[in-house]
Write a structure and sequence with these properties.
The chain is α/β, with parallel strands linked by helices and 306 residues long. It has 13 helices and five strands. 52% of the residues lie in helices and 8% in strands. Strand 3, helix 5 and strand 4 form a beta-alpha-beta unit. It binds zinc ion.
Length: 306
């Protein structure tokens, strides 16, 4: 049975690392193989669909392609295992133009194992592609997450969310509807009608001012109430992820920030800075989630983000 390729992948089929997140094991299995087949296929279409006929496609269908290396889930993947994977990544391919590593259920790797992957994921040899799968993105280290192209298999399509909102919240403007839809997609929010558009709009403004370098002190004006601050940090992280994706793909990608705003922020933030900021915001988010003092976290965030 053929599995369809995720739209994020077909739009960006040449990136070096993907993370496919889905609660459904069959979907993680099927989609990761479908992406690997597309990468290895010798005659894939413009839309990144594999031809199904070349030697690589035939071997992928049979599960015997020597350049598709699957590190199965259920094996305890130690730091040493990861080092072996890294060494293998630097060896030439067997027969295809690329070598694809499928790391199943990478959310079950411990911190040191994920860290051991960082460097090769960030700058793999040109012929290497990584496909990580996870049942939830939460257990993937932020440092890893900001270096891969995340694809969510859990969320409803953005258009569905937008349609739902158009019916349920007729008072919203079209730009508010799209903003909420992108937010819901970024965080797997099921109950979109409960999202607070005014608050998200306000935090989005602040995120833009901060990321475009117009007002770096704005961190001091972030809310200090726990729930509000968590929402605010999520908005910032989503914006940073959008900027990182624009850098990774070299294309202006629609998202919570409009194309104009993301392009402005993109010119002010380097890839390295985007990674560092994402890590910092996520660190702060996790502290707040663990009931750290909001004011202390904001002071820390302010100092570190300068
Ligand atoms: Zn093919």
């Amino acid at each position: 049975m053929s599995t369809s390729l995720p739209a994020v992948f077909t739009a960006n089929p040449n990136l070096h690392a993907y993370l496919y997140v889905s609660g459904d094991m069959n979907s993680r299995h099927g989609v990761s193989r479908a992406m690997a087949k597309s990468i290895l296929c010798r005659n894939r279409t413009e839309g990144a669909e594999p031809c199904g006929k070349c030697d690589c496609c035939i071997k992928m269908d049979a599960g015997t392609h020597p350049d598709c290396i699957v590190v199965p889930a259920a094996v305890k993947t130690t730091v040493d295992d990861i080092r072996d994977i890294v060494s293998e990544a630097y060896l030439a391919t067997n027969e295809a133009d690329f070598k694809v590593f499928i790391l199943e259920d990478a959310d079950e790797y411990n911190g040191p194992s994920q860290n051991a992957l960082l460097k090769v994921i960030e700058e793999p040899p040109s012929f290497v592609r990584f496909i990580l799968t996870a049942s939830s993105a939460g257990a993937i280290l932020p440092t890893v997450r900001s270096r891969v192209c995340s694809i969510s298999g859990n969320v409803k399509k953005i258009e569905n969310t937008a349609d739902e909102l158009r019916k349920a919240r007729q008072e919203l403007s079209e730009s508010q509807i799209m903003m909420l839809s992108y937010f819901a997609e970024g965080y797997d929010k099921a109950d979109v009608s409960a999202l607070d558009e005014k608050a998200i709009e306000n935090y989005l403004d602040k995120a833009y001012l901060f990321l475009s370098g117009k007002e770096t002190d704005i961190i001091l004006s972030l809310p200090s109430k726990r729930d509000e601050l968590m929402l605010c940090l999520q908005v910032f992280m989503l914006c940073i992820r959008q900027i990182a994706l624009v850098k990774m793909t070299g294309k202006l990608t629609a998202g919570i920030l409009s194309e104009k705003l993301v392009s402005e922020c993109n010119s002010k933030v380097s890839m390295k800075k985007a990674h560092a900021l994402y890590d910092l915001f996520e660190e702060c988010y996790l502290s707040i989630e663990g009931y750290a003092n909001s004011n202390a976290v904001l002071t820390y965030l302010f100092e570190k983000s300068r």
